[in-house]
Amino acid sequence: MRVLFITHNYPRYEGDPVGSFVLRLAVSLRAEGIEVHVVAPAAPDVPPTGVIEGIPVTRFRYAPRRLETLAYTGTMGAQVRQFWKARLAMVGFLGAGYRAVMRVNRDFAADVIHAHWWFPGGLVARVVASRTGTPYIVTMHGSDVRLAAGAPGAGSLFRAVSRRASVMTTVSTWLAAQASRLDPAMRPEVAPMPVVADLFHAERDRDPSRLLFVGKLTEQKGLQHLLRAMARMRARAHLDVVGAGRVEDGHLRALAQELGVADRITWKPMLTQAELAVCYRTATIHVMPAIDEGLGLTAVESLLSETPVVAFDSGGVTDVVRPGQTGVLVPAGDVPALAEALDRLLDNPGERARLGAEGRAFALRQFGPAAVASRYAALLRAAQRGQGAGR
Predict the structure, then answer these.
(1) CATH superfamily, region 210-367
(2) Which CATH code of 3.40.50.980, 3.90.550.10, 1.10.3720.10, 3.40.50.2000 fits the domain covering 2-194+368-384?
(3) Which of left, alpha, beta for 75 (phi over 0: left; psi -120 to 50: alpha)?
(4) Among candidate residues 270, 375, 266, the one with its CA nearest the CA of residue 19
(5) Domains of the chain: which residue ranges?
(6) Rounded CA gap, 237 and 186, in Å?
(7) What does pTM read for this prediction?
């Protein structure tokens, strides 16, 4: 079976963390006898064609180089809302993406198209399907569901994509509920992305009081809540922030100074998966103060490293962080409760070890490559047979 992936986030090189879960799925599907070819947007200094971990990828140009900023930055939606040049680039993106898929598929002859994010990839798949009859499925990862709920006219486009798709999947039960509100006729399947189990493992010697935050430095990811919690904590824990070095982190560094915690923070840039694995296994606790996170694969990676997770009780992260089993949940936005939970867990190494061990076992069962690939292979084959599994 041949499946063509369409995505706007995909690793640009070996070890690149951007969109790495899409690559992980493509690699995992090989064990199910499924051949994958990826179509993704161009990026600076990245060749137009290539192979990463045995998966071929074709990349398309969609605007003059200075305007090709929509992909890989995690700010596509914000750019399109704020700048007319970004809107023009998006028009180019949709047209170039469509042409690239049609061109690649002349030789690849996909049985099914798998679009990651309903926009822009799902919309491209919808147009391709109308021209070729190739069935498609769409996986929603979180930001695209927020787009459908909040952008003018996006709801209608979303329903145009969802009602033609063979199946719509989400990476968490929370996202499935959100998506169903946007299109009550849809019954999305919950099917998370896989993680590389052998890359993440436990470390015996951990720092006894080192917190870890991983993610974009946006308000939704919630680092500001963690900084305020650190100022309230009894413990003088150190914090590693992975994802720094972008324009948007200036106000967070200023907030850390204002709160008197700046001297206990190490700001790190985006790291490769191998480098990130070291951070997970040396951290004491991984903190996820995000609101309405689609799932939070970084939480899964931490659990595989036997690092417990403390998170807000919000969004899809509740599929990963099970209170008393894999970590601790506190009410969303409750900074005092976050500080108290972190102090309590830092004071209890035995509890941390138990949560870590149970967390790794849970993550392997739910997010291991074999289990996830089997689930998606069944959905893709149902689409190939013309069976709308999600409707």
Answers:
(1) Glycogen Phosphorylase B; (3.40.50.2000)
(2) 3.40.50.2000
(3) alpha
(4) 270
(5) 2-194+368-384, 210-367
(6) 46
(7) 0.82
Taking a C-beta distance cutoff of 8 angstroms, is the pair 36, 3 a contact? yes
Query: Helix axis angle, 369-384 relative to 20-29, nearest 10°?
Result: 70
Amino acid symbol at 29: L
CA distance linking residue 134 with residue 172, whole number of Å: 27
Fold match between 2-194+368-384 and 210-367? yes
Tens digit of pLDDT at every position of the chain (391 positions): 999 999 999 999 998 888 999 999 999 999 999 999 999 999 999 999 999 999 999 999 999 998 888 888 767 877 887 788 888 999 999 999 999 999 999 999 999 999 999 999 999 999 999 999 999 999 999 888 888 887 888 889 999 999 999 999 999 999 999 999 999 988 899 999 998 878 898 887 788 899 999 988 888 899 999 999 999 999 999 999 998 665 567 889 999 999 999 999 999 988 888 899 999 999 999 999 999 888 888 999 999 999 999 999 999 999 999 999 999 999 999 999 999 999 999 999 999 999 999 999 999 988 989 989 999 999 999 999 986 544 4
Angle between helices 349-367 and 369-384 (to 10 degrees): 30
